[in-house]
Amino acid sequence: MTELLQVEQLAVAGIVQPLSFSLKAGRPLTLLGETGSGKSLIAQAIMGNLPAALRGRGQVWLRGEELTALDVAARRRLWGRELAMLPQEPWLALDPTMKAGEQVAEGYRYVAGADWVQARSQAAQDLTRLGLGHAIHWLPGQLSGGMMQRLAFAAASTGGANIVIADEPTKGLDATSRDQVTGLLRQVAQGGGGLLTITHDIAVARQLGGDVMIVRNGEVLESGPAEQVLRAPTSDYGRALLAAEPAAWPALAPLKAGGPVLRVEGLTKARGDRLLFQDLSFELHGGEVMAVVGPSGCGKSTLGSLCLGLLEPDAGTVWRDAALPRLRYQKLYQDPPAAFAPYCSLGQSLRDVVRLHKKDWAEVERLLPQLGLSRGLLARRPQEVSGGELQRLAILRILLLDPVLLFADEPTSRLDLVTQQQTIKLLTDLARDRGCALLLVSHEAELVSKVADRTLQFTSSGVLQG
Predict the structure, then answer these.
(1) Which of 51, 346, 31, 387 shows the shortest CA–CA distance to 219?
(2) Which of 25, 365, 379, 412 is 20 to 30 Å from 271 by CA-CA measure?
(3) Contact 453, 288 (CB under 8 A)
């Protein structure tokens, strides 16, 4: 097979140990590993857009040309045309003031060189193929996390690059959308292109096939054909990943429900001319775990915002215990960067919460190791840590406020399997031990079957309760 990209002794000082690999035409390569292991930094070092505070070493060759010897402007001219990257946080890569169709059309116009008529026509076709035809005139803020991921995929694909680097391309997507995006990525390789995928999702690695490298703490633990590595890993961590798949989890402790903390009656909500749900009613009790499942963009996140009073319903009522401070009704956001001040250190953000709400900093120190977080992360800004690390810090901040209801919107979509299991245990312990009601959005059917007392299933014909 033709080698399209060669990486030699690539390292990021203090984080990623030197590693070498080649990307071959038609042969997918997947970096699989724990959250915060440096996988995304490898992709950024290849592209030449590492954060300013970090320095890369080693060499990257593209069809015989050394990219690491080029200046910044020369490397950027390759973006979209030779190398395309699907970002881990799609909402940061999208213009919040530009409609979805125009964001994709702009790529065809300015990168691929099409005229505006062709560009808009092709953009409409791409978005329709990705299930976003109805959202062509929507702004990113009107899209769910999964919908934004698909929009970013469409926008990044407009320049015709022969090498695609996909950083967590399926996080936050339901199984159908995940399989669809994975299928689109496979088409890159099947068409003779190079595909480097970064993921913590074993199902994605299995579907893509090709070769797999398992990464932990910035070091490659093992590599080889996907079928071999994912069937019988040789490293302890590789075996731990397989053992942490939700199907192997123990069942949740029996429910001892407390009093009601939320009551929804006759709730109806539409987005534009699209009805999300109608006449929805349910009650949620302390200690209870209710899962909310359904395809991307069906209204799951909207339901949570209605329950917390962040949005107004078109009809119906939401009751919350008026004797409790509203602060104890909390939301864990699907995109954690949206929940942190971008120019403050993470430690400062936590200290602000401790000071403002008269909490004890010792609780922060106690929770850090429970969530698998090092104290050194507190000196960094949100954009200087992985999405998974930022999500766990968001969970820590919420735990400081002793919530009675937590709406957790895809809380593990950025986490590897081992960290996912630890995080879900922390959230379900919060429910069972502290009596906090948990409204959990997830696309993982196996996970839901293990932890949910009840389920709200969003379907095309309505919402089913079970």
Answers:
(1) 31
(2) 412
(3) yes
Q: Which amino acid, one-letter code, is at 250?
A: P
Q: Strand runs (DSSP E) across 41-136, as ranges?
A: 56-62, 65-66, 83-86
pTM of the model: 0.75
CA distance 205 to 230: 8
- Please, which residues have CB within 8 angstroms of residue 170's CB and are 6 or more apart in sequence? 149, 177, 178, 181, 182, 199, 201, 204
Q: How far apart are CA 178 and CA 466, in angstroms?
A: 25
Q: Which two tokens stand for residue 219?
A: 């070091």
pLDDT in tens, 8-67: 999 998 788 898 999 999 999 999 987 777 888 899 999 998 888 888 899 999 988 999
pLDDT tens digits along 305-333: 999 999 999 999 999 999 999 999 999 98
Contact 58, 7 (CB under 8 A): yes
DSSP 373-411: --GGGGGS-GGGS-HHHHHHHHHHHHHTT--SEEEEEST
Smallest CA-to-CA distance from 325 within 258, 401, 265, 398 is with 401
- Tell me the Cα Rg of the chain: 22
Residue 431's closest CA among 455, 396, 400, 403?
403
Please give the C-alpha separations between residue 248 and each of 129, 228, 408, 412, 429, in angstroms, as whole numbers: 35, 21, 22, 17, 18
Q: From the centroid of its chain, how far is CA 210?
A: 23
Alpha-carbon distance of 177 to 445, in angstroms, equals 14
Contacts of residue 35, Cβ cutoff 8 Å, sequence gap at least 6 = 200, 386, 387, 388, 389, 392, 414, 415, 416, 419
Terminal-to-terminal C-alpha distance of the chain: 51
At position 443, the amino acid (one-letter code) is H
